[in-house]
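Usage

Read records sequentially. Each one opens with the input sequence:
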Amino acid sequence: MIRLLVSVRDPHEALVAARGGADFIDLKEPGQGALGGLPVPVIERVVAALRGAGSTLPVSATIGDVPMAELASILDRVAAVGATGVDYVKVGIERAPGAREVLLALARCGRPVVPVFIADRGLDEALVAQALALGFPGVMADTADKLAGSLFDVAPVATLQRFVRQAREAGAMVGLAGALRTTDAPRLAELDPDFAGFRSAVCAGPRSGDLDAGRLAALVAAMRAAQAVPG
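and closes with the structure output:
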């Protein structure tokens, strides 16, 4: 079954997501860009709230949107976020000069990093292959411009199929995200990633608004129904 990753911004949202059927809690600030990072003290409070409530769900957190040219800043943020007790640190990887050096440095940083490949300008299969060869625990595809539509509007299905297959063949987790909607459940079921990430679909208003328990319940039901279809 595809695990449901839900992005949250504070302890309250994290507990709503955990109790509402999320399989994976992702920490980010949606008002600060595609991979907007939360302040380290907030990440610590969210982790403490989840563990204090008895949740054993895996938790990831983003470091924020940092250009590939700012390697030192990327590594500093990875170290700070990784020290909060999260299970995975997500780092956006742009199709830009410096990306290869960033991946090499992240692989040596000693933290469980999940590279998130930004698909708006296309997925670089060679760059993805490099990440998989470096042994990261997982990889994701996401979008930067959430107003341009969902991941399915940005990347051809064949490209996403190859991305999932590359990761599977390397034995790594693979996730898809990017303004995904509840109506994308059947297409996600066909691609069958290990997890699918959502924020927009579980907010009553814009993705920078509050998480809505009713929309989360509808998403959980849609994902389960899509995966229950024979064939």
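Summary fields computed downstream for this record:
- The longest helix spans residues 213-228.
- The longest strand covers residues 3-8.
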